[in-house]
Amino acid sequence: MLVVAAALIDPAGRCLMQQRPADKRHGGLWEFPGGKVEPDEAPVDALVRELAEELAIAVSPAALTPLSFAADAAAGARPLVMLLYVARAWSGEPRPLAAAALRWDLPAALAGLPMPPVDVPLLAVLRESLARGDALA
């Protein structure tokens, strides 16, 4: 299963995480916003769609910079591969339409949050990239 996610970075360098609803798999854990890629859908198009559906924001495909990917073979019957993109520009104020809560914080502070296994290495890559000063998005 192919999943896309976004590290939305605000001007203060904070990243947005969303908390999964309690009644979902990994309920209560914090994750990057995103979702499944539909058949015949490009990953960037899927992420633009998911961010609109989950957060009520508009992101241009050109504003999404690919950063890394992670795999979770223990995700159930179908292994999961997550592609992480970085975005520093979007329209609208993120709202938790499909999440229990939203949280903005510096990536170093987010490392202490409980997360689904596939998000953990992606946050580590994001932290390392930002610490090196990589030009992300």
UniProtKB/TrEMBL annotation:
InterPro entries: MutT-like, Nudix_hydrolase, NUDIX_hydrolase-like_dom_sf, NUDIX_hydrolase_dom. The keyword Magnesium applies. It catalyses: 8-oxo-GTP + H2O = 8-oxo-GMP + diphosphate + H(+); 8-oxo-dGTP + H2O = 8-oxo-dGMP + diphosphate + H(+). It is an enzyme of class 3 (hydrolase). Its EC number is 3.6.1.55. This is 8-oxo-dGTP diphosphatase. Keywords: DNA damage, DNA repair, DNA replication, Hydrolase, Magnesium, Metal-binding, Mutator protein. Belongs to the Nudix hydrolase family. Residues 1-126 form the Nudix hydrolase domain. Its cofactor is Mg(2+). It comes from the Bacteria.
